[in-house]
Amino acid sequence: MSTELLFREDAYLGTATARVVAVHARGIELDRTIFYPLGGGQPGDRGVLVREDGERIAITDTRHGEAPGSIVHIPVPGGSRLEPGEPLTLELDWERRYALMRLHTALHLLSCVIVAPVSGGNIAPDKARLDFDIDMSGLDAEHIARATNALIAASVATETVWISAAELDAQPELVKTMSVGPPRGVGRVRLVRIAGIDLQPCGGTHVRNIAEIGGIRVTRIRNEGKHNKRVEIVLAPETGAPGID
Question: For residue 188, what pLDDT is reported?
């Protein structure tokens, strides 16, 4: 059974209700969820499932299930066993998720500042990075930070756009990543558009407006191989001016 992905329509949902579909060795499957599963360089969400009697079951990770479209919520070991059909309240670790949303959107902007194929990427709550197939001489930390923060200052809204797989195949230039394929498998492909700045396939969660990123700092640029030049960023402190280390 496919899980209804509530975060796909509204990434700002911090709570929701759901019912248990299945409980097995891998974790807990629900009929609907606000928890994003690991994918596309973005880690799975954490949070709590609350039973009707108030018992709270901590979720330490969220992954794709074995069945197409299913999502598995991984609980802390040793907790109570839930029953199929049982109603729950879902509570997301919102502070962690929002940091991931801000950084994920920032990486989309970074891919516009550094015009080169993206060979890898990863997001954590405290930092994020993209790898590029580019010569090291083409990467300057000060320029990257200033150009990315200039885009953030434009305060442009993000939008979700859906196209068919055939339409994406006809526009291969939309795909920037060499290591992660576009989110397919549902008959259509989700794009994230930042009007006048960026348009690319992405199944992750993003802020509504790029101004919410606040600013980034470039913390490191290093050579990770012939086709991998890594640019690492963090969110700039809200009390300070965006800059670089």
Answer: 82
C-alpha radius of gyration, the chain, whole number? 19
Instruction: Find the range with the poorest average confidence among 36-40, 43-47, 136-140, 169-173.
Output: 169-173
Instruction: Give the closest residue to 65 by CA, choosing from 33, 26, 32.
Output: 26
- Which residue, among 143, 149, 147, 97, has the nearest Cα to 124 in the 3D structure? 97
Closest to 232 (Cα-Cα) out of 108, 121, 135, 118: 121
Contacts (Cβ under 8 Å, ≥6 apart) of 132 = 114, 116, 117, 118, 119, 139, 228, 229, 231
CB proximity list for 197: less than 8 A, separation 6 or greater: 109, 112, 151, 154, 156, 210
206-218 as b/e: b if 16+ CB within 10 A: bbeebeebbbbbb
**Rounded Cα gap, residues 190 and 167, in angstroms:** 11
Dmax over CA atoms of the chain, in Å, equals 60
Bridge partners of 189, per DSSP, are 163
* Structural domains of the chain, with CATH: 4-92 (2.40.30.130), 97-235 (3.30.980.10)
Residue 233 · residue 128 · CB < 8 Å: yes
